[in-house]
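Example record

One chain of 338 residues, shown exactly as stored in the release files.
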Amino acid sequence: MSSIFRATTPDDETEIVEFLVRAFSVNHDAPFVEPSLLRWKYWEPRADWLEPRSFAMERNGRIVAHAGVWPVTVRNGASRERGVHMIDWGSDPEAPGAGVSLLQRLTKEYDFVYSIGGSETTQSVLPRFGFRTVAEAPIWARPIRPWRQMLQHQRKDLRLPVRLARNVWWSRSPPVAIERGWAAVEAGAGGAEDAAVPGSERDASFFRYLDRCPVARCQTYAIVNEGRKAGFFALSVLREQTRVAGVWLEDPSAENWRTAFHLAQDAARQHTDTSELVASCATVASANAAAQAGMRLRARAPVFLFRKGGPVEPLPLQFHLCDNDAVFLRGRLAGFLT
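Predicted structure tokens for this chain:
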């Protein structure tokens, strides 16, 4: 029987929940199918992207594959390219090939499709359909409240004192050192209003959309040097983790990256009660700066890219946490919480 590819609507909510529960073998209380989060991901209006963000493949009136999309528009010189990262991509076990058919349709709809990490199955499937590994997105973390971490989240076993001592040391050495003249100024969800986001068309409306997420709190900060705006960063606060949604600098030197990470750590300590800070750094300068700012490498995620009608060239994206669902994912990102 032929399949129908279509965008979903809020009227499909119940059926999508049932499909995702079946496709991913989870219970109805799984965090990623929470109704309020589902509505925000797929159908909450956002000024920076007016197109659909959830698609289904249907057979005989029944959803057999689904993918949400996390969109971004990038600039390459004078040209603009529309792309997406797939989220909640799955297929019915009783409908072999449906998920692949949906993937192929999406690669025709957009200029590029990319994927950061993903399950073992996803990482094995994508190269078969023209996706190429173009980058790596390492995850870095630093404990900021190790005692809270120990009392609430660390495994209670014989190694607990060792982990506590390690996390206390890593939370204090090296100390957060913000150079004279630099500051982070809290700017609200629209704090990116006047800031340039190199390579992408993220703007204040994107951060306002993030701020409406029902499971995470977004806050943006202007990075100021001697009274002049030098960039900005955004934090997503989700339970015990403060996640650096992204850092954008007018001068992305290693020194400025290090200062930005120190400012983010200071903001997390002052304005949240979380236990750790987590960030993704895909450039050499940002990775070196994360290490110099006391963060520890915790995981590595490959970045896969499919570009329609042309060679697979690198994207002008830094693959921050806000470039996929890691910015609001309810599960813990790689860190020190266990």
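Notes: DSSP finds nine helices and twelve strands in the chain.
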